[in-house]
């Protein structure tokens, strides 16, 4: 069983703008979920929701190192809270590259999930991170063009 999903994108935006998109309510709602709660500190709770799918995922913030690292652990089964069920770790790393920022998302821990949800979550999240990272690029590219 594959354990990790990794995706990197280059975004024509300053690292602080990318950080804001990843860690603030307004930023996250612009590219990820439209129903968001986040307490941006280690141990803080977060909820990412998608009203169009009537779905939400609970998370616990793991690390916050502004502006280069943000991670959280989220539950693999959306019907549970993260402290009640198996979870995976999502890590965003940011690196300045001239006038752009390289963003890498790594989601790990699929091999430790129960078999009945591991394959489904790996497939869904592989496709999901591809789409979501493109949404992040599109959002920040449009925001940079307006500035």
Tell me about this structure.
The protein is an alpha+beta fold and 147 residues long. 31% of the residues lie in helices and 38% in strands. The chain has a seven-stranded antiparallel β-sheet. The longest helix is centred in the last third of the chain and has 32 residues, at 115-146. The protein starts with a strand and ends with a helix. The relative contact order is 0.23.
List the helices and strands and how they pair.
Blueprint (H helix, E strand, L loop, with lengths): L3 E8 L3 H9 L1 H5 L5 E4 L6 E6 L4 E11 L3 E7 L11 E11 L2 E9 L6 H32 L1
Antiparallel strand pairs: 1-7, 2-3, 3-4, 4-5, 5-6, 6-7
The profile of the biggest β sheet is: 7 strands, antiparallel
Number of helices: 3
The radius of gyration is 15 Å
Could you list the spans in which at least 5 consecutive residues all have pLDDT below 50? none
**What is the element string, with H for helices and E for strands?**
EHHEEEEEEH
Would you tell me the structural class of the helices and strands? Answer: alpha+beta
Approximate strand percentage: 35-45%
End-to-end separation in angstroms reads 44 Å
| C-alpha geometry | globular
User: Which sequence of strands runs across the widest sheet?
Assistant: 1-7-6-5-4-3-2
Tell me the number of strands.
7
| Overall mean pLDDT | 93
Helical content (DSSP H or I, runs of 4+): 25-40%
